[in-house]
Design a protein that fits this description.
Elements lengths: L1 E7 L2 H13 L7 E5 L4 H5 L2 E2 L2 H4 L2 H26 L5 H27 L5 H11 L3 E7 L4 H11 L4 E4 L2 H7 L5
Parallel strand pairs: 2-3
Antiparallel strand pairs: 1-4, 1-5, 2-4
Helix pairs in contact: 4-5
C-alpha cells in the first residue's frame, strides 16, 4: 500500500474527490481527513485522521522494539553473568526475559515520544490546514497510484498530491538526516 496526501482547498472538493476515489473501488476505510474544521470529516462522511496517521507513533514504536529488545538481551546476559545464575535454563530465562522486557519498555517509551512528533507530511501541511485546507490521506495499492493521480489532476488541478519520498521515510525511520 502507498499513502498519498491530497491537500484540498475545501470540504466540497474533498467530497468530490472522495466520490471519484469510490468509483475506483477505494472505500471510506482507505481515506482519512485532517482539518482544522471539525465538521470537515462529518460533512464528507470520511474518517477523521487518528494519531496513528498524524504522528510518528508507529515508526517510533517499531524503533523502540528494535533498540529495546537487543539492549535487553545484552543487559540480561550481563545480569546472568554477574548474578552467576546456575544452569543453562536459568541463564536463558534471565536473558530472554530481559530481552522481552527491553522490547516492551522500548515500545512503551518510544510510543510516548512518537505521539508528540508529527508525521513528516502532516507537519509539512500544518500551516495550510490551519488556514482552512483539508488534508486527505489515501491508502491505495501501488498499482493504482498512476491512475489515481491522473484522475485527480485531470478533474482537480488545484489539488496538491504528494507521497512519502524515500528520504522522508528514511528520516522518519531514524536512518536519514
Amino acid at each position: 500500500m502507498q499513502r498519498l496526501y491530497f491537500l484540498t482547498p475545501d470540504t466540497q472538493t474533498t467530497a468530490n474527490i472522495t466520490e471519484e476515489l469510490n468509483s475506483l473501488g477505494l472505500t471510506q476505510a482507505h481515506i482519512h481527513v485532517a482539518s482544522s474544521n471539525p465538521r470537515a470529516w462529518q460533512e464528507t462522511g470520511l474518517n477523521k485522521a487518528t494519531l496513528l496517521q498524524t504522528t510518528d507513533t508507529a515508526d517510533a514504536a517499531r524503533r523502540g522494539v528494535m533498540i529495546g529488545a537487543p539492549l535487553g538481551l545484552v543487559v540480561g546476559l550481563i545480569a546472568a553473568w554477574i548474578l552467576a545464575i546456575p544452569g543453562p535454563m536459568g541463564m536463558a530465562g534471565v536473558i530472554v526475559g530481559m530481552g522481552i522486557f527491553g522490547g516492551l519498555f522500548g515500545l512503551w517509551a518510544s510510543t510516548l515520544i512518537g505521539v508528540s512528533v508529527p508525521d513528516a507530511k502532516v507537519k509539512k501541511f500544518r500551516g495550510d490546514i490551519r488556514r482552512g485546507a483539508v488534508l486527505m490521506m489515501v491508502d491505495i495499492p501501488e498499482s493504482q497510484e498512476d491512475e489515481v493521480v491522473s484522475l485527480i489532476h485531470r478533474h482537480h488541478p488545484q489539488v496538491d498530491i504528494e507521497k512519502i519520498t524515500r528520504e522522508e521515510r528514511q528520516h522518519a525511520e531514524g536512518r536519514g538526516q
